[in-house]
Amino acid sequence: MSVGTAKHRELGLTDSEFELIVAQMGREPNVVELAMFSLLWSEHCAYKHSRKLLKQLPTAGERVVMGPGENAGAVDVGSGYAVAFKVESHNHPSAVEPFQGAATGVGGILRDVFAIGARPIAILDSLRFGELDSVRSRHLLDGAVRGIGHYGNSIGVPNVGGEIYFEQPYEHNCLVNAMCLGLARSEDMVRAAAAGIGNAVVLMGASTGRDGIGGASVLASAELAEGDDATKRPTVQIGDPFEESKVLECCLELLEKGLLVSLQDLGAAGLTSSAGEMAAAGGVGIDIDVARVPLREADMEPFEIMVSESQERMLGVVEPARVAEVLAVCEKWQTGSAEIGVVTNSGQVRILRGEEVVGDMPVAALVDGCPLYDLEPAEPEGWIYGNRATLAEGIAAEDELLALLASPSIASKRWAFEQYDSVVGSRTVRRPESADAAVLQLPESGNAIAVSIDGNGRRVACDPHAGTIEAVLECAQNLACVGAEPLGLTNCLNFGNPEKPATAWQLERSVAALAEACTALGVPVVGGNVSLYNEGPEGPIYPTPVVAMVGELPDPARVAGSSFVAEGDAIGLIGPFSPTLPGSELAKQRGALDKGLPQPDVAAVAAACAIVRDAVRAGRFASVHDVSDGGLACALAESSIGAGLGCRANVEHLRERGCQPEEALFGEGTGGFLVSGERMVLEELGAVLIGTVGGESIEIGAGDHSLSVPLDTAESAWRSLDQRVEATA
Amino acid sequence: MIWGVLQFPGSCDERDALHACSLLGEARLIWHEERDLGGVDGVVVPGGFSYGDYLRAGAIARFSPAMEAVAELAADGGPVLGICNGFQVLCEAGLLPGALLRNIELRFTCRQVDLVVEPSLGDLTTPEGGQVDESKRLSIPAKHGEGRYYAPDEVLDALEANGQVAYRYASEHNFNGSARDIAGVRNEAGNVVGLMPHPEHAVDPLTGSTDGLRVFEAAAAGARA
Questions:
Q1: CB proximity list for A339: less than 8 A, separation 6 or greater
Q2: Measured between CB atoms, which of B10, B198, B203 is closest to A242?
Q3: CATH code, domain carrying B187
Q4: Options 2.40.50.140, 3.40.50.1820, 3.30.1330.10, 3.30.70.20; CATH of A59-187+379-726
Q5: Across the interface, do B10 and A246 touch by the CB < 8 Å criterion?
Q6: Which is the most buried residue in A161, A617, A623, B71, by most CB within 10 A?
């Protein structure tokens, strides 16, 4: 049976890709095969525009237990334990239906982590929306936060941190990136490669329905009986955290009992990608009998079963003699299970419906046969995103500080994180906004881990190279603030259409910078995810490489917070911090964004991180806070508000580094740590002393920009997000 | 004392409750299908989303075999502590009065709250006999979407008259809109206690507070009294 060449185009394959499939198959693919090829050869699964670039990333490291290519990366945390982690995007589904899109994003990333045998111990999220004054943005924000909370809360995994930025270029294409960390005994971890000819393939978890049959619905209209309405087929998946909770416990029990040879989750492209990738990784073939797949609707076509993205499903490879035991454990957890196939030595993925063969493809062609493309980058002439001034130049410094504190991107995100359970699991040593990185204790290995997730797309838009290095350094600084040494990094590269030269240039520059920063810091990249084609009618999103770094610290009791602690403590500044206004929140509010940022000095920042890390581990600071969005003035305000203590500081020292008063107050850049504690200690550590904790106002001397703001006024501005979202949400 | 901690499909906090109990005595998990509690002295019905809670929180769990055994233990005067979803289950099972409705702001909220310990709770009463002072406040996390305690006024009056209000939210800490700031109640005999906040997440200074241990101690003491 041949499908017309028009079909492959509607499924997103180019003519030359279709011809390549025909050449590799030796014939034209049938409907089932074309559906499967179109998904596995999609950008999402094949990384065809990014794979060549990603080869630059350093992936080796002494502590790496699992690197790229597995369901999640993992690093050794000592005493025989490993921490697995991964970030994944669920941008497009969330832009269509934010609650379910975000919820299933969390569900998917949880499965990636327990697929390698790690019990999920924390969730973080990185979100981007349009400006908060847009009804659409508030709707997306509200839905995404509820969805993330719904799924994570219901399954009992704490949400311990994250970030939210509001920028116009995300108006039509919000970003929802979810991260999960898991803990496993290194020896119990399992890979996704199918192995053992004759072993059974067991599908566990939810039944398979027509949800998430995205692009392949083109085929539905061609193949299903007359009168069927393709519009009935929902393309956004629906999450069921209860089912996931049962599948999670079931899989962990199966692994603990040694009943699984390998395990893989069903994510994008459902059974197609799981079966194909397991076979490819193991160098084997797989037969799948769709007639044995438990269905929600009896009349589903084979291709629909193969591409369905129904959630909460896992695929395991089991020795034939152990199948009955596996099914019994599934029964105990009241979750579905069915033996749907077998591992073969054919090198083919064969799809059967009972006795009938309905698809038969070489694994190599299906999984690794997709052509990889070179980008055609071209640097854009100027600033390709708009500018929108919301703040006049020349207003009082006090008003500038309050405007920055009230910016939704800087303001407290309590409205969001209070909707997440941050305490379940008894590991959360630092809850959201109490320190710069989340800290989780690991009684199993007697130490703790810290995690930070960052990616300021605006600054990457200004300069993809400098902005990406800054994102990595920001993570490294956040870890240093809690005394953690980096172990590994993962990332989610959110970009626009890579076929457009400007986006291709951003992507190429950004990945090169990511490789450069990770190499310089000696931090291996253990996994990643790429989300391209994030564009709306008004153009692409800001290029947004979201990076997440996991580090280790010996003693969680020593972790300082980011808020000041005691009246009279000295305030100091550590690190090579030379802030400037380009790309800053202030520049944005003034409508003065433009191309170009200063290039960060990675080695100098790394040296400052080491000083801070060691001092935190020795318990020498009362507080430590990374200077980030909104500059030193906002950092001082945040440390004050958190403590309910004012401060008196003077930032004119930064003149020596070439900073004008305005830059010293609100300029941004890497390498700054705001610390407080005993004056002698701070001096000994090389801090520039800039002030003292105390009083009921934030007073900052900065020449003709000196300011004084009552603490409660600053706090009202910083805590204004609640009312602004709730007013109309 | 040996505590049993029930485990339903969908339970979230059972491991934390198990850990908290093990700090005060022995503890073990009890699978929801067990009709026999295996000789434990007391039971914790933990937090989470038993059976998914897609119907009404706790409405299905109350029918589980383990809950039949818990009802018998309660009738015999054994200590039973319901936390969050466990509180909802005990209310659904009729072992505690009242019901838990959706939070007044209709959102799940996770927040550290201060609780005032009511003087009726055995060991925790003040020497003066009822004057609750600041030292009787407990700092404990609460996290739920359906925690607004409700009962008809005459029931609330009776609860207060009988000393059945176990915990109240301190002023400005009642985020869910509970009637009369009630965070936890107990039965007339005093051996069955339920509360929305999570004492099992407050047993370690590193994670915020150790005040939760006093709730477990009080639950054990209430049964002996």
A1: A200, A201, A202, A292, A318, A323, A327
A2: B10
A3: 3.40.50.880
A4: 3.30.1330.10
A5: yes
A6: A161
Going by C-alpha positions, the residue among B27, B26, B23, B24 that lies closest to residue B7 is B27
The 10s digit of each residue's pLDDT in B84-97 is: 999 999 999 999 99
Contact at 8 Å (CB) between A515 and A57? yes
Best residue in B16, B22, B206, B213 for a mutation probing chain A (most A CBs within 10 Å): B206
Which residues lie closer than 8 Å to A521 by C-beta, 6 or more apart?
A472, A476, A486, A602, A606
Per DSSP (E only), the strands in A535-581 are: 535-536, 539-540, 544-553, 570-574
Residue A313 one-letter amino acid: R
Nearest to B16 among A153, A245, A424 (CB): A424
Residue with tokens 């993330």: A148
A429 and B206 within 8 Å at the Cβ level: the answer is yes
Residue of A93, A117, A116, A118 whose CA lies nearest to A106: A93
10 Å Cβ neighbour count for B84? Answer: 28
Contact, A209 vs A296, CB < 8 A?
Answer: yes
Q: With bands split at pLDDT 50, 70 and 90, how would you rate the model's confidence at A396? A: very high
pLDDT of residue A217: 47
CA distances from A111 to A76, A145, A312, B44 (A): 20, 20, 8, 29
Residue of B nearest to A440 (CA): B207
Distance CA B87, CA B95 (A): 10
pLDDT band at A229 (very low <50, low <70, confident <90, very high): very low
Q: Is A49 a catalytic residue?
A: no
Nearest residue to A49 (alpha-carbon basis) of A706, A638, A381, A503: A503
Measuring CA to CA, which residue among A641, A714, A725 is closest to residue A406?
Answer: A714
pLDDT of residue A517: 98
Residue B84 is among the residues annotated as catalytic for this protein = yes
Read out DSSP for A642-656? HHT--EEEE-GGGGG
What is the rounded distance in angstroms from the CA atom of residue A406 to the CA atom of residue A693? 23
Taken in order A36, A38, A44, A50, is the CA torsion positive or negative? positive
For A198-344, the fitting CATH number among 3.40.50.1450, 3.40.120.10, 3.40.50.2000, 3.90.650.10 is 3.90.650.10
Return the residue matching tokens 């193991």. A282
Q: Which domain holds residue B83?
A: 2-224
- Please tell me the pTM assigned to this model: 0.94
List strands edge to edge, sheet with B109-117: B26-31, B2-7, B42-45, B80-83, B192-195, B182-186, B165-169, B109-117, B137-144
Identify each DSSP E strand in A507-555 by its residue range: 525-531, 535-536, 539-540, 544-553
A43: which 2 tokens? Answer: 């950008």
Is residue A181 classed as helix, strand or coil in its secondary structure? strand
ipTM: 0.93
Q: How many domains does chain B have?
A: 1
What is the H or E stretch that residue B173 is in?
Answer: none
